Please model this.
Amino acid sequence: MKKQVAVLPGDGIGQEVMNGALEVLKAVEDHYGHQFKVVQADIGGVAIDHHGTPLPKETLEACKQSDAVLLGAVGGPKWNDVPVEIRPEKGLLGIRKELGLFGNLRPIKTFEALVDASPLKQSVVQGVDFIIVRELTGGLYFGEPRERRGKNQEVAVDTLRYEKKEIEKVVRKAFELASKRRKKLTSVDKANVLESSRMWREVVDQIAPEYPDVEVEHLLVDVAAMKLIYQPNQFDVMVTENMFGDILSDEASMLTGSLGMLPSASLREDDFGLYEPVHGSAPDIAGKGQANPLGMVLSVAMMLRHSFGMKEEADMVEAAVEEILRTGARTADLAGNQIVPVSKTKEMIDLVVEQMKPNYAMSGILAAYL
Ligand code: IPM
Ligand code: MN
Model:
């Protein structure tokens, strides 16, 4: 199969983890005889440096002409003082909006080998496997007006605005997912306070009869935050508005041991999608070759699965990640305070790629005899 992938490494560790992800993509190519044409483009701070804007037209064009987009991370202290309209994050928000990527899937799955890496008790995190579906192109992030007012600019306004049809789209996506999983949908809102949340709840209840086998639960966001820590196993699919989803997904990442492990997919109604790790550009460790590349690698697997329909290929990448963790490979973020040998980004990638080689098992057996 031939596919074109727009590759936007971005800033900080974005570049480092993307280099690794591309090696994994190459390994999939070799293994299955696919052809992935990679088109690189700038986004975020690096795009401000090269083009004066965090989302150049060329970048958007490259994405639109591709079958999927891989993104590393954006932002960093270097661009702290640029005007708000061109901050690196604007590149990320802009690309989500321009490409119509309304549905953000953030799977939260603990790896058996990493149950020790979570700061929470093993009994709490064991077997956790759910997906947060975050609405990505509406709500507080995009509502107008958003401005400073008053004689001395002493008033600041953001607007939480949703149209019914925006909510319907993302809620349907979540129901679809739940109906293919354990058939439980938790809708998270703040309906005891917010008008937009009351409408959100109404939409969920209107769509629910179309999915009679899916059990629906409504949770207030504060209660959801508490239950994520105290009983995370009760969740299967959680759907929520943009900012609640942003906050809850960072919280939930700690169940898996590290934010560095989490992939995400940002989807529109067709197969097209943008895939990025949930972590940011981590300026504190950028350039040191220490970053955990597995969130990015697992994002590649999500791309193979969702945009290209390559289930076997995606399974293979995910299995390779699982296996190297099982054999004890750890980047610094996964080591916690245990005394274990720590691998650098490149070593982790080499291990994943090695694991994906068709004759890996055989060569191991042969090596034992030689
Ligand atoms: C995320 C990030 C972004 C967001 C920032 C960088 C704008 O935190 O993808 O979760 O808030 O959406
Ligand atoms: Mn976030």
